[in-house]
Amino acid sequence: MGVYLVQFLSGLASASALFLAASGLSIIFGVTRVVNFAHGSFYMLGAFFGYTFVREVGGGAIGFWVALLLAALAVGLVGLLVEFVILRRLYKAPELFQLIATFGVILIVQDAALWVWGPEDLLGPRAPGLTGIVRIFGTPMPVYDLVLIGVGPLVLAALWLLFNRTRWGILVRAATEDREMVGALGVNQSLLFTGAFVLGSMLAGLGGAIQLPKGGADLLMDFGILAEMFVVVVVGGMGSIFGAFLAAVLISLLNTFGILIWPSGTLVLMFILMAVILVVRPTGLLGRPESGGHKTEVGVEQALRPAGPHYKIFIGLLLALLLAAPLIVEEFYLVLITDVLVLALFATSLHFLMSTGGLVSFGHAAFYGGGAYAAALLVTYAATPFELALLLAPLGAGLLALVIGWFCVRLSGVYFAMLTLAFAQVAWSVVFQWSDLTNGDDGLLGIWPSAWASGTQVYYLLALAISAGGIFLIRRVVFAPFGYGLRATRDSNLRAAAIGIDIKRQQLAAFVFAGAMAGLAGGLFVFSKGSVFPDEMSIPRSFDALLMVLLGGVDSLSGPFVGAAAFTYLHDELITFEYWRLLLGLTIVALVLLFPQGLAGAAKHHLGRYLKLEAGSAGRAKQADEGRPA
Amino acid sequence: MLTIEKIHSYYGQAHILSDVSLSLSPGEIVVLIGRNGAGKSTTIKSIMGMVKVTQGSIRFGGDELFGEPPYRIARRGIGYVPEERRVFARLTIQENLEAGRQPPRDGAPRWQVDDLFDLFPNLAEARHRAAGTLSGGEQQMLTIARTLMGNPGCILLDEPSEGLAPVVVEQIIKVIQQIKGQSLPILLSEQNLYFASLVSDRAYVIETGRIRFSGTMRELEENAEIRQQYLAV
Amino acid sequence: MSDTATARAAEQPSLSIRNLSKAFGGVQAVNDVSFDLAKGELLALIGPNGAGKSTCFNMLNGQIRADSGSVRLAGEELIGRSPADIWRRGVGRTFQITATFPSMTVAENVAMVLMSQRRELFSLFRTAVHRHRDKALALLDLVGMAAQADRPCGVLSYGDLKRVELAVALGNEPRVLLMDEPTAGMAPRERIELMGLAARLVSDLGLSVLFTEHDMDIVFGHAGRIIVLSRGALIAEGTAQEIRSNPLVLKTYLGEGQIYGRAEG
Fold first, then answer.
1. Where does the record place it (chain A) (predicted)?
2. Is the minimum CB–CB distance between B90 and chain C shorter than 8 Å?
3. Most CB within 10 Å of its CB: which of A163, A425, A582, C68?
4. pTM, to two decimals
5. Is the pLDDT of residue A231 over 60?
């Protein structure tokens, strides 16, 4: 009895920090329409700042709480800096750029925290005066947890008052619905945005700080909490603070009780809970359907036209050059180009989903890594021959995509994106934690191709054939009735449904196809390296794919190849530095800020004019208002 | 008091307005009339700073508005009632009005919430209801009331009759006449010539982004050629 | 007019709506509505904003599920079927705010319908670039848009988009066409042309059309019969003349007649 009650209370206690962070994310998204990927980093910073401030000023009971508030304030300042220097310039840019920029911030914060606080996990200080335990029916319960239980509802009440009883709150809610209109009524939107961003950041920081005595501070907190926050926001219902609170409680309880019932399966439980709720209520517990047809604008929505003659010649030359490469360059470079080919197929599969389907997946690495693991597991446990394993890699990834996609296509736009990320994080955790099967962090080793394909040159040519073949297949599908049907669902949901297109089915099929293609790339990858680690499924790898799409030409066959090449080059240049994440993050932010309309877009504009590629970039401004409710 | 001289406006790359000039004097109601896509809403959004204006001048009471962000333009006293109403659907009527509140300004009529509830008795009864649950006509009234909460010195009214029942349009005509009684000038964009002729003093006809006719409402009604050519009546 | 309308209504109706109701969170949006759409009829559905016209339309094509009631298409029950299913059975629709695929050409927009109708959308390898072009051009010819077949839909004028929508709706060879404010946002002459086109399609193809509209000149000039909704309930049904002189309709919808009707007096 006591055990369960304590477990219940302890779940409520963990819910508070999660709720604080998630409500901040929700507020920021509501007002600025930016999904702040760096929100997990703000949470982590809150913990680190809290650690430092408690040591500096947190002597007594009051000092401790002052220190936590100072930590929240400090994170608010970081948020202010991020908003002011980066996001403010990107509000009008396609969403993809904002996301990539906040991802750059994640990298910067990771290395900054490493530099300031070092690589060791920090043990959280205990709260003075609250270090004791109480016994509930004989079971011990930390007093601090009881205090934490109160913090969530307290903040919830404060937020409710703020949003319903103050003019600022009313304006924030108004801006959440129609920010342009708020501006036209004489409200300085910039200030409102900055305010909302700072408030959201502070909530994340406070969330990170108050959990210090329970969980301490470490460098892996950012991605861990990020996926959980996304789950909370999606399950609770976007834009509903009450919903976020409910979902945070639900998920925390599930976690704490899950440990009692099925210690290794808590993530699976979370997955099932999320799935059930989304099937029953696609808008989340307290969410309302999006008013208007808010769509994720990825900036790659133009029509694709069949290649013109100049372009075909260009592609022919590129292929000829790649075919001749083994005669021209050293083996070292062949390995590098093999990497590029693998990544190009990976990026093309994501690009297909984004451009033709309008579906931005933040978790595409789940399928890339999924394919790699499928092949590696088959080789390790079933002694599957190389050729068959390579063939089964896309199948495995496709099956995974079928399961994940079945849930994800129920949502659209940014919710779809968040859900893909959450599922990918679950997939990563399964691989990471199920070490009996996957060897966890040590990875699966010794996954080599058959003797005939093991030479660098032969494997390079094989990778070239498969990657080029895959890319051509994807392109073929784009121009097939299937691709047209998919584009129809992207262009106008309303019209697509009215002409009998089963939108979800079309999208799911596309998701599975793209997942399978990413899996094929993953299969190629694992046999080129001989090993696979959980990293290949991680959030950063998903972002690599997004970055490649951003860097490469978005409208063209060669785009993802160019993107993959640029990415590989960038990565290889930076990896030699100790703080390479910092440099990569800064580079990403700089690229996005310098070319807010898209690096590829700018290049394509000039190059395309030269190559006469601009056949039909149909405007989309005209139908920007489609789908508004009557 | 509002003078627009030779503005050119763009939506992305598309050149929407060319060389548009018009003016609005105190106490007068001027209609900008033309068919869908002719440039009416773009003209109004250009004044509000909501679309890119590349050249020309927009002056209001001696201030140059060209290049200013929308919120500053609104604070100078331009009240904007958008097309398709755009109420904040999840906010109550009272909260919608609160969102429009701006300090009173000299030379412009002052509006309090109670004045507006007098003008729109329907809204008063429903003040704690979410705006999204109102009928189309009530929402149109609410957007006008919300704009008046900013105590504007002139009003831009974008297609107020579009998609509304005839009986509601008649109510809107009465409201416009009452506002005019406060000597607030109104620039109205409209397609419906009947509606325009009932409330307006002067008219500009716009087609493919250029002003094609300017004159009194009566001159327009008598000019069958212009009506045929640009308004397809 | 009145006699032929009644005579038609006496035949087997295309669409037979009985006791249709729908509530949203306690608000009765549509309350016990019954009417028939006769074969070859142009029937107008009018009423104030928020009277339930859109909800009614959305129930007829399956986008919203009715709480109770029945909708029969030539005897077949439609309630409970998906929008795609209802569309396949021959109920087409156009939208108040045009909904086309802006990244495709006019001809491709129409070809999309044909591909969907023929269940080709999961075909992965055939090219779709000029698929069903002849049939698409023929449909575009019907609405006078064949000359613009290769322009992207995103750059068309509003009136032309409406015509494309009509061609798209006809692609499925519907028996019933639902048109939601077909002339909204058009100039008077364009309005008359579009409704003339609709009337021609009704007589040439044997279509039945149900449309909503706020332009009373269009309603009185083109509809064979008119039904009036107010606060979710059907308050009147009849010819133009009957509706124009119905005191309840005047009070709830038409008003004093200031803003329509001068064209024909």
1. Cell membrane
2. no
3. A425
4. 0.86
5. yes
